Amino acid sequence: MISASHESRAASLTLAPRGEIRHDWTVEEIEALFALPFNDLLFHAQQVHRDHFDPNAVQVSTLLSIKTGACPEDCKYCPQSGYYNTGLGKEKLLEVEKVVEQARAAREAGASRFCMGAAWKSPREKDLDVVLEMVRRVKALGLETCMTLGMVDTDQAGRLAEAGLDYYNHNLDTSPEYYGEIITTRTYADRLETLGHVRQAGMKVCAGGILGMGEAPRDRAALLQQLARLEPHPESVPINMLVKVPGTPLENVDDLDPIEFIRAIAVARILMPQSHVRLSAGREQMSESTQVLAFLAGANSIFYGDQLLTTGNPQVDQDRALFVKLGLHPEQRESCVDDAHQQATLETALVRQSATALDTEASRLAYDATRA
Ligand code: SF4
């Protein structure tokens, strides 16, 4: 016999017709999703996920910091901000050859997308020329390209698109209401404006946020509402768990319950059924069980390798082991003549548990440099 409480839970699931693409979610509707019994929420998210994706495929990206530290913004979570003394080593814009070398190593390790991040408010003209060359050269390796360079205007976005940039990452970070508690050197409207320029230029959008910064549950709902309002939805939605870096104002903020984090992944999956939801920064601090739940909740993208701008990422061996344990496989790129080769490369890497070839000396050096 079905109990009354079960019936009421089932009724609440009608809040989210399966797979419907909507841009008009209210915060109250999103809060109602968050409030569903955990099993119901995950079941619903998994159903939506299966309607749109191979449930066992995970998109794999590699991330490189191409300019590190001394950022003029004051993001309270970020060790790269020039406002805080975190002991992070600063690095000027990397040479193009160095970036290409890293991208090649990532490709050999099986990554399908190479993401490059620079700690800028926005790119200066002379730096943009170098960055455009990086895009062209990395693209020529057959990799998808993604960049995060801060705010870009219409002209800069157009030139990046022309150079072949596939994705531009620009996170909304948190809700509009909580934003001023985290960043004061730019506004929410600035963020949305850059995202508009990226879209206008024809690039794909990568936009998400960070959870566990002391925000209220309603802020998490409001952040996801802002992302779901974007039309079309961002193709990539990174959901980060705050990495508490000593020296930043958020170093002692209370931990977010991992179950709340998983709920946010599941709600993001339901709100944006066709987007890749990325399990992003903070993965190193997560238990294996939390990561497994994130995949079950609809996360289908990760950073692979041990570089994640200036915070760590689980060792590649652990990632390979987890993929094998869960029967996951890397998602193939949409358009690359080398797809079969790429797929074989990563799958071989995933099953050869003892292989250390992925951990290239080059990537280690770069990683160590960011932590120096
Ligand atoms: S998050 Fe980006 S913009 Fe903010 S301080 Fe860090 S590098 Fe600068």
Architecture overview:
It is a single chain. It is globular and about 55 Å long. Strands 1, 2, 3, 4, 5, 6, 7, 8, 9 and 10 form a 10-stranded parallel β-sheet that branches. The protein is of the alpha/beta class. The protein contains 14 helices and 10 strands. The chain has helices spanning about 5-10, 25-35, 40-50, 95-110, 125-140, 155-165, 180, 190-200, 215-230, 260-270, 290-295, 315-325, 340-350, 360-370; strands at about 55-65, 115-120, 145-150, 165-170, 205, 210, 235-240, 275-280, 300-305, 330. The protein has a single domain (about 25-365), classed as Alpha-Beta Barrel (TIM Barrel), CATH 3.20.20. The model is unreliable at about 1-10 and about 335-370 (pLDDT under 50). β3 (about 145-150), α6 and β4 (about 165-170) form a beta-alpha-beta unit. Helices cover about 45% and strands about 10% of the residues. The structure holds iron/sulfur cluster. The site of iron/sulfur cluster (SF4) has 8 residues, from loops.
Write the layout of secondary structure elements.
Blueprint: H1 4-12, H2 27-34, H3 38-52, E1 57-67, H4 96-108, E2 113-118, H5 125-140, E3 144-148, H6 154-163, E4 167-169, H7 179-182, H8 188-200, E5 204-206, E6 209-211, H9 217-229, E7 236-241, H10 258-271, E8 276-279, H11 288-296, E9 301-303, H12 316-326, E10 329-330, H13 339-351, H14 361-371
Parallel strand pairs: 1-2, 1-9, 1-10, 2-3, 3-4, 4-5, 6-7, 7-8, 8-9
Helix pairs in contact: 2-9, 3-10, 4-5, 5-6, 6-8, 9-10, 10-11
The chain binds iron/sulfur cluster.
